[in-house]
Amino acid sequence: MGTMSGRARRFAYVGLDVGEDSLTGHYELDGRPFRETVTFEGAGSLRSAPARALAQVWSLLAGLSYYKAGAARSVELGDTPVGPAGRALLEAALRDGLGEYALGQGLDLSDVTFAGGRPATPAPATLDPERVLVPFGGGIDSVVSVESLRGDLDASLFVVSPASGPFAALEATAAVTGRPIVRATRRLDPALTGDATLRRGHVPVTAMVTLLAATAAAASGRGGVVMSNEHSASEPNLVVDGRAVNHQWSKSWAAEQLIAAAVEEAVGADLVVASLLRDRSELWVAQRFAALPAYHPVFRSCNRAFAQDPARRATSWCGECDKCLFVNLVLAPFLPRDALAAIFGSEPLASPARRDQLRTLVGRGATPKPFECVGDPAESAEALRRVVATPAWAGEAHLRALADELGPSASDDPFAPQGPSRVPAHWLR
User: Fold this and answer.
1) pLDDT grade, residue 5 (50/70/90)?
2) Closest by alpha carbon to 295, among 420, 73, 141?
3) Is 237 found in the same domain as 118?
4) What span, in angstroms and rounded, lies between the C-alpha atoms of 185 and 423?
5) What is the pLDDT, as a whole number, of residue 173?
6) Which of 155, 283, 309, 405 would be a feasible disulfide site paired with 414, CB 3.0-4.6 Å?
């Protein structure tokens, strides 16, 4: 087993157990076993052929949480059923989805070899296009997706929680939607957090959640998984030796296409997996969210509310992290200043302590865009220009000075559709 100073030799996919309401993926890193179990509520039986086929695709990506513990030089698929699209998704998720992890660990994963695997048998599903699942994280993106769906579409939320228990902020926001909830609880192998010799870092968790949602959708006869990944999620944080490194790779357009191809390969075209916000900017999303006051007292995007350990979960916005600052920034043009302060319990934008972070968000800092789920610098810059144009913020000299440094707005309309989208028309109002 490799330690922090070296790399493991071999990572193996050992098998997948499919129960009536649970999935357990088995993996080995240089012979050391790991397992992850996901238990579902409200999804129906996972033992149908389509659900099993999609669970196999999920297990490929779930394995990356354990692969990263040793950054093995070879990946052995063994008897795992995998088609060409599933294999392409796995290889991209390892090389690009672990890009931030590799950068932080000082690794080059381009040398990883893949071997084994047997052909996957497609399991065509007949699903209802009028019934969809919406993976829901409790932030502005997933709220806007729910509220943008056609009113008579049968939409349920899909909520993933850790074994330590549901997230209070997410549950409170989900309750405001009034939608039914299909649940999944992830039980990661305890060695991931309990063994200090294992490597740690960011994994493409959104892609894993997407495939869990697809599995639940197939099991329950639903024909759609409505993601909430907007246009700028495709923008990398930086490029290293010609390779893009993107914290949000698993929310990107490239990942969406790879996931959709793997899903279609497994169960056919009846299950549509697409991001409702793919061609929308964060400013468009923020403007929509600002007009939904029922959510304002309860929603939370601060990562400190989502710690795995319940004792460490913040019960309010921290007002200090890049995520707090970004959400504060994009909402500020569309909400009264006092209403915004009431939501956050503070004013990150007005805080001198946040000035360097703000400069980085708008592309004027000494470092690239933070490794967080925040908009690209152009979106943040446009939000800042709009903030200083409002009378309530006009007196903040440091904001005005930074906006002047940015210069005039680009000619592109941030509220117009941007780039391609795979969203079916029947999802929309």
Assistant:
1) low
2) 141
3) yes
4) 28
5) 97
6) 283
- Position 254, amino acid: A
**Tell me: the pLDDT tens digits for 176-217?**
999 999 999 999 999 998 899 999 999 999 999 999 999 999
Q: CB within 8 A of 395, min separation 6: which ones?
A: none
Q: Which residues contact 425 (CB under 8 A, 6 or more apart)?
A: none
- Domain that includes residue 306, residue range: 282-406
R_g of the chain computed on alpha carbons: 21
For the chain, give the percent of residues with pLDDT over 70.
99
In three-state form (DSSP H/G/I as H, E/B as E, the rest C), the secondary structure along 102-113 is: HHHHCCCHHHCE
325 lies in the same domain as 402: yes
Compute how many other C-beta atoms are within 10 angstroms of the C-beta atom of residue 221: 15
Instruction: Determine, yes or no, domain membership for 425.
Output: no
With beta carbons less than 8 A apart as the criterion, state whether 213 and 207 touch: no
Residue 7 dihedral angles phi and psi, to the nearest 5°: -110, 150
- Name every residue whose Cβ is closer than 8 Å to that of residue 215 and which is 6 or more positions away in sequence: 23, 43, 46, 51, 54, 55, 58
Structure tokens at 245: 């490194």
Could you identify the residue written with the tokens 């500020």? 332
**Is residue 194 located within the same domain as residue 116?**
yes
Residue 313 binned pLDDT confidence (cut-offs 50, 70, 90): confident
Closest to 277 (Cα-Cα) out of 305, 252, 314 = 252
Quick check: helix, strand or coil at residue 365? Answer: coil
pTM score, whole prediction: 0.96
* Domain contains 20: yes
Q: CB–CB of 34/187 below 8 Å?
A: no
Distance of CA 200 to the CA centre of its chain: 18
Region at 299 (left for phi over 0; alpha for psi -120 to 50; beta for the rest): beta
Residue 314 banded pLDDT, cuts 50, 70, 90? confident
| 192: nearest Cα among 396, 419, 325, 32 | 32
The contacts of residue 239 (CB under 8 Å, 6+ apart) are 245
Instruction: Tell me how far apart the 2 most distant CA atoms of the chain are, in Å.
Output: 65
Measured CA to CA in angstroms, residue 162 lies from 19, 36, 186, 336 at distances of 19, 11, 5, 36
Which of 223, 256, 275 finishes a domain? Answer: 275
Token output for 48: 């149908």
Tokens read off for 362? 């708008």
First-to-final CA distance of the chain: 53
One-letter amino acid of 85: A
Q: At what angle do helices 205-219 and 49-62 cross, to 10 degrees?
A: 170
